[in-house]
Hints:
By secondary structure, the protein is mainly α.
Amino acid sequence: xxxxxxxxxxxxxxxxxxxxxxxxxxxxxxxxxxxxxxxxxxxxxxxxxxxxxxxxxxxxxxxxxxxxxxxxxxxxxxxxxxxxxxxxxxxxxxxxxxxxxxxxxxxxxxxxxxxxxxxxxxxxxxxxxxxxxxxxxxxxxxxxxxxxxxxxxxxxxxxxxxxxxxxxxxxxxxxxxxxxxxxxxxxxxxxxxxxxxxxxxxxxxxxxxxxxxxxxxxxxxxxxxxxxxxxxxxxxxxxxxxxxxxxxxxxxxxxxxxxxxxxxxxxxxxxxxxxxxxxxxxxxxxxxxxxxxxxxxxxxxxxxxxxxxxxxxxxxxxxxxxxxxxxxxxxxxxxxxxxxxxxxxxxxxxxxxxxxxxxxxxxxxxxxxxxxxxxxxxxxxxxxxxxxxxxxxxxxxxxxxxxxxxxxxxxxx
Length: 413
């Protein structure tokens, strides 16, 4: 409106100039076209140029308005009322769920401005474009929607980030999500999208920073939340293990204990968290401390992953460790993992025959490729090569997929 007023004022001034009311002796303009010449006053020439520009503006406005009216009429006859548009949009969503991306995008975009919840249309249409491989169109759809509906900035931004994540463009996805977090730090949708991103990237430190908000807004079930916290603890212990490995040997135990003390007490009883701590201790040559941690946990909560770690400990008093494991055998006589662990501890104590018996007992309960390999190695070093080969073949058959029934050559021996 302001531009139109300014334009009218300029037009009036130029008209007055053109008729010589203002500055009557301002000069003239001479135009030569081939053999013809046109001479007029300067202000009349200016007025003529402005008149032509005004006529052009009117023509373009007429075309624009006519096109808009034609499009609205077309939409009306094709889609009709809001009720018909809603049905058409629903049809587009069905196409979307059916995987007919092309039809879904077409219907959803055409009805986006005529339904009560246009955001669903835009997000689904963008996703359809993404599935079609037209990533530029997907971004354009979301950008257009963001311009039209500023209050939808958060869900649209999250959708963009998820598409970037699906495409493997992790830095771009992170930039979008961090930007949204700065604008809406307490928005549950943003927090949940960051949670998914950090879990995918296994960024446990960053996930730990937003974990209190994940719990506060109850973005996951209770079981998922507990499992997530365990994953964070395991990730932190793995990082601590790598960090301690770069420190002097005499400082490693103190560093690992410091990290362990910060872990919530109930998480210190979760087997996978205890296993991560024990692995960190073993990795940093702190097997004696790992034995204490594993023994205390296994005495209260039995877990095969923990007894597997117990079987590879390099402790000073290996005989005492064996006695501890044999005491557990009274309560778990049919536990294949415990029997394998006892076999390995017997190897550590150079009790070859006892180790062989434990491995065989373990395999009698559960055929395991790792146990087969331990037994085969032991038999080979004991000089029983034929039996060792037989055990190795059993391990190979166990780990290899089932072979098809095909003709084989006849044995000649």
